[in-house]
Amino acid sequence: MTGKFPEGFLWGGAVAANQIEGGFGFGGKGISTADVATAGAVDKKREYTDGIVEGIYYPSHEAIDFYHRYKEDIKLLSEMGFKCFRTSIAWSRIFPKGDEAVPNEEGLQFYDAVFDECLKYNIEPVVTISHYEMPYHLVTQYGAWRNRKLIAFYINFCKVIFERYQNKVKYWMTFNEINVIAYQSFIAAGIKLETGERKEEVIYQAAHHQFIASAKAVALGHEINPDFKIGCMLLYPLTYPMTCNPEDVLLANEAMNKNYYFSDVQVRGAYPNFMKKYFERNNINITMEAGDAEILKQGTVDYVGFSYYMSLVASSDKEKGGDAAGGNMVRGGANPYLETSEWGWQIDSVGLRIALNNLYDRYQIPLFIVENGLGAIDKVEEDGSIQDDYRIEYLRHHIMEMKKAVIIDGVELMGYTPWGCIDLISAGTGEMKKRYGFVYVDKDNAGNGSLKRYKKKSFHWYQKVIASNGEDLE
Ligand code: BG6
């Protein structure tokens, strides 16, 4: 299919602070929840230790050392022609413990330098305010997002970064994959569930706190700079019915509603009825304060950012449903029509077109694909080249479907930032060998390697894609 993307389309790539920066113990940074995550594997869950335990390898402490190499890295991204670069701000660099009144100037200076470096190459920073980390002290002292006090700490953080970077950053997102709190509560909200606790009540209460924090941040951001574009960010686990049995269709709808609930609140500014009824039926009591409904209404987002990697299926047949397939955060049924990645993620490029149409029909506000990509094992050849044709293939098909959604279906799409544009630490497994990047980083799962950067074959391919505004996908 021929055709270009609209003028000003934001081509770029995405990363998160805790998966690239390293710089643990530098610049006054405090310990974050990501800093207590151990290394895992496809069949070994990451653990979250109680504080830093000596002798354990924590992948985030060095990551790919972007903290010291950001100039070299941003230059490489600029060579690909990036129009934008999505990263996050490590909350614990700005407020090492999270509850201080005064921010850490050294941390602020680091992001000044990163954003200046981007702007030097006309790359727009796209900033996730909270991407799977928070100061660890907020967990031990306050119980993390269980506690309503977190809202004030988060807003203080937002105020500082909005004011500081108001002339450097225009695009923001409040919480990465906010719906993941329902599946992985520690990574998303610093919550370790105790045995005997009413799991859903704890989680949905914490989600309510994040909704209020997000809405307040949107209102505050717009007050500080009316040009800010502040979005939500949803993990989009597209779920199909296994068959046309109405029971399967209903199950698939219900599975999607559990995710839409999060974007509904952030886009429409109110709890959807299906969720209120779910709470009622399951005796889930969410404590809300007077004025919360108004806060949600006043703080609706400007766009919907979302991640899309795969699709799942729902089936009323117990044997076919279940959790045979999935990714790092969500699981569901396997689809016999799809192939999977080496990590078992079901590859579905057409699903991206469906996702774009579903989200645009539902909300009618601009969308932004802020994550998409293939985690794969790469091999460095003797001549230093990396022939990652499988990655090119994955991205080409996804971009083709994205193009159809924009050109044929009329979906309003702001941009596309494939995940892990430079190799980084996997969030789900803590591995290095699960690579997404256009740029290879020499480091292995145990933390060994020179950290040298190499351009993969996909680097040159993506450069052409951007230069032709999506016309040349060959
Ligand atoms: C998303 C996260 O869930 O998927 C990223 O926002 C993460 O932080 C990405 O890295 C890919 O997942 P993984 O587990 O392969 O790193």
Q: Could you give a quick summary of the protein structure above?
A:
This protein has 474 residues and is α/β, with parallel strands linked by helices.
Shape: globular
Could you tell me the radius of gyration in angstroms? 21 Å
Number of helices: 14
By CATH, the architecture is named: Alpha-Beta Barrel
Strand content: 5-15%
For the secondary structure, the number of strands is 16
InterPro entries: GH, GH_1_N_CS, Glyco_hydro_1, Glyco_hydro_1_AS
Organism: Anaerocolumna cellulosilytica
Family: Belongs to the glycosyl hydrolase 1 family.
Keywords: Glycosidase, Hydrolase
Characterization of the model:
With 474 residues, the protein is of the alpha/beta class. The protein has one domain (10-467): TIM Barrel, CATH 3.20.20.80. The chain contains 14 helices and 16 strands. The chain has helices at 17-20, 66-79, 91-94, 105-120, 136-142, 149-165, 185-189, 199-224, 246-268, 273-281, 292-298, 349-363, 389-408, 457-467; strands spanning 10-14, 84-88, 124-130, 171-175, 229-235, 238-241, 303-307, 311-314, 325-326, 331-332, 339-340, 346-347, 367-371, 413-416, 439-441, 453-455. Strands 1-2-3-4-5-7-13-14 form an eight-stranded parallel beta barrel, surrounded by four helices. The chain has a two-stranded parallel ribbon with strand order 6-8. Strand 13 (367-371), helix 13 and strand 14 form a beta-alpha-beta unit. The longest helix is centred in the middle third of the chain and has 26 residues, at 199-224. The N and C termini lie close together (11 Å). 53% of the residues are buried. The mean pLDDT is 97. The structure holds 6-O-phosphono-beta-D-glucopyranose. Residues 16, 19, 132, 176-177, 235, 307, 328-329, 371, 375, 419, 426-429, 434 line the site of 6-O-phosphono-beta-D-glucopyranose.
